[in-house]
Amino acid sequence: MDRTAHDRLLIVDFGSQVTQLIARRLRELNVYCEIHPYQNVTEDFLRDFAPKAVIFSGGPDSVTREGSPRPPRAVYDLGVPILGICYGQQVMMQDLGGRVEAGEGTAEFGRAYVTPGADRIDLLNGWFLDGTGREQVWMSHGDHVAALAPGFAVYGTSPGAPFAVTADLARRFYAVQFHPEVHHTPNGRTLYENFVRDAGFAGDWTMNAYREEAVQKIRDQVGEAKVICALSGGVDSSVAAALIHEAVGDQLTCVFVDHGLLRLNEAEEVVGMFRDHMNLQVIHAEEQELFLSQLEGVSDPETKRKTIGRLFIDVFQKYADQIEGAAFLAQGTLYPDVIESVSFSGGPSVTIKSHHNVGGLPEKMGLKLVEPLRELFKDEVRALGRELGLPDSFIGRHPFPGPGLAIRCPGEITREKLEILRRADAVFIDQIRRHGLYDEIWQAFAAILPVRTVGVMGDGRTYDFACALRAVTSVDGMTADFYPFSHEFLGETATRIINEVRGINRVTYDVTSKPPGTIEWE
Ligand code: XMP
């Protein structure tokens, strides 16, 4: 995005687990903001970024520790409003001449209630209105402010934080001990709204504005060159493709790799929608035989993923090579993948599953990247998709993993099992839609189990596969809980699957949360 086009807010990240939520709240208020780790925020950076306001995030360190994270002094001389949150509050106090002390009886974790001070402050307009005279907030701090910096006064207190809300009104510096960005501070959004209004933000970060600017930017970047895009039918690649198509029309060619591990009618739906409905050039790479033959006899989940990932790159490259003059590869990278958050845990985390992606492609093929969604969060991508005219049924789709049904077929993959699985999955999803539950559920699918069980149908004995149904609620797929279907729903669904899908005679429902389970069975 052209940074000069919007007022910008800078979030200095001190390593809080919830820094991204600050950005979410601000984007909801149509404010353009960026998160940058404190180490990168130098004086030069500040000059270049020219924020209209600054927010200091929370963080796990203690300002009482020598060498703890700090912003450059110059941030206080910008003459723009600053809001410090939790650790950010303590940084401000310490930097500006106050005092912070370690724990000792005033640590607060979880729900707390703030009561207003004697003087009103615009930052809290809209608070304390429910008649209780207090406002619920979320605290998570060990250290506390022991003495205010000169110029600051107190505008709200909580039992464990006498300085819960503080401000230097002359300089428009605000500092709060709690986290207004989290769900458990129900009126936190109002606080952010008051802050950005005071800072003079126009609220001009709208999807319509974004769309127009993004289109222009793609045109400037791509010129007359050709762009290729691996279209999966997922929200990110679909929206990226639609946006690039709006910018450069037929200079874009999409490749839809059909690995034979898709859901019932999926390939036809995706290709039909983009080719016929949206007039994109789409190559339907029908490579089912290649993938399925290479997967024959493979039962290890990681080998499945690696095989599919490798073949995917080969296949994509083969089709892309046929597009003369392709110089750019489109990717649906989102902002959460771009944010270089401060990590205090150190060291790479353990790989539970190696998610497949097309990350190795650009270097291998000598392509430049077009990533028009780099500044967006997932729900903003959905909003943009709607702007671009993608149907709601597409935008609201549950996520589907790159390796597809391969990881919903524990053990050895066979064509027979895939066919049975496809049909069972379709009945399950149909049930969910019929009962109006699709949008309440984050992801739902069937898995076919590598066992046959005995049943009785009519007067005969059956010896068929069992399947497991999985439906979870989640925000980001990192943690999840099983969806609490009614027993009636489960009974009706089991009956339908057994009646309508030959090859299955037993249906189970997976009630494992994540952790300890994962969402997929492999
Ligand atoms: P798990 O099973 O790890 O899944 O709890 C979390 C989310 O990631 C998806 N998933 C994958 N997506 N390639 C993908 O593109 C993969 O190999 C893969 N494995 C899991 C899963 O569907 C869920 O949405």
From TrEMBL:
It catalyses: XMP + L-glutamine + ATP + H2O = GMP + L-glutamate + AMP + diphosphate + 2 H(+). Pfam families: GATase (PF00117), GMP_synt_C (PF00958), tRNA_Me_trans (PF03054). ATP binds at residues 232-238. The active site is at residues 86, 179, 181. InterPro entries: Class_I_gatase-like, GATASE, GMP_synth_C, GMP_synth_GATase, GMP_synthase, GMPS_ATP_PPase_dom, Rossmann-like_a/b/a_fold. One of its GO terms (cellular component) is cytosol. Residues 205-397 form the GMPS ATP-PPase domain. One of its GO terms (molecular function) is ATP binding. It is an enzyme of class 6 (ligase). It comes from the Bacteria. CDD domains: GATase1_GMP_Synthase (cd01742), GMP_synthase_C (cd01997). Keywords: ATP-binding, Glutamine amidotransferase, GMP biosynthesis, Ligase, Nucleotide-binding, Purine biosynthesis. Pathway: Purine metabolism; GMP biosynthesis; GMP from XMP (L-Gln route): step 1/1. Its EC number is 6.3.5.2. NCBIfam families: guaA_Cterm, guaA_Nterm, PRK00074.1. Catalyzes the synthesis of GMP from XMP. Homodimer. This is GMP synthase [glutamine-hydrolyzing]. It comes from Roseivivax isoporae LMG 25204. The lineage of its organism: Bacteria, Pseudomonadati, Pseudomonadota, Alphaproteobacteria, Rhodobacterales.
